[in-house]
Design a protein that fits this description.
Radius of gyration: 17 Å
Distance between the termini: 53 Å
Structural class: alpha/beta
Helix content: 25-40%
Strand content: 15-25%
Number of strands: 8
Number of helices: 8
Order of helices and strands: HEHEHEHEHEHEHEHE
Length: 213
């Protein structure tokens, strides 16, 4: 962790941070956390925070709750929050699923899962964030019409994601498969690496609610 990141973490964590542990109150009061009532976007695995900061800056009417375990990434995002003046960002440290379980049902406008660890070995697939039980949990925290948006550059994981999301009875796929790359999703470091390596990037966008009959 750089000195800049460590300094930001030390100074800004009390104002912008949320520690996920056994003592995390459930449900989390999002209005108190952000100091206002506004639609909330959950960013699972925010990495170094560049994409989260860019989206929050372009979308001031929504609040962004980023969850990450990588301490340098948390420090970097906090530094970006200060330098860009982003009052609509909070950063949670710990297990994303523990945080989701502590959120009220139907409290989120969107959930973003951008470039999660693909856990490519078959014996590790059970560690993937996008699997049926986890998707059901995420969907329960989405408000009606809310968006679950995933992106990956791992083709096998993309197909697994597509099958899992399509099979969830409470989600609707408005694109009938992979979605066009949305303009609002910034190009992340992972995506730049994928492009350099010649790997395609897959976006999947599903909405909470059943399709009209």
């Amino acid at each position: 962790m750089s000195g800049r990141q460590a300094d930001a973490l030390d100074r800004l964590w009390p104002a912008y941070g949320l520690t996920i542990d056994d003592g995390l109150a459930a449900p989390v009061d999002l209005a108190s956390l952000f100091g206002r009532r506004a639609p909330v976007v959950l960013e699972i695995g925010s990495g170094m925070g560049d994409a989260t900061a860019a989206m929050a800056a372009d979308d001031p009417d929504r609040d962004y709750l980023a969850v990450e375990v990588h301490t340098p990434g948390i420090g970097n995002l906090l530094d970006l929050v200060e330098r860009r003046g982003l009052p609509n960002v909070r950063v949670a440290r710990g297990d994303a699923l523990d945080l989701v379980r502590a959120l009220p049902e139907e409290s989120l406008d969107a959930v973003h899962v951008f470039f999660p660890d693909p856990w490519p070995k078959a014996r590790h697939h059970k560690r993937r964030i996008i699997q049926p039980a986890h998707v059901a949990l995420l969907r329960s925290r989405l408000a009606p019409g809310g968006t679950l948006h995933c992106a990956t550059d791992w083709a096998e994981y993309a197909e697994s994601m597509r099958e899992t999301l399509t099979a969830d009875p409470g989600l609707t796929d408005p694109h009938g498969g992979y979605a066009p790359r949305p303009d609002h999703r910034p190009v992340t470091r992972f995506e730049r690496r994928a492009r350099t390596a010649g790997r395609p990037v897959f976006d999947l966008v599903h909405l909470k609610g059943t399709a009209p009959s």
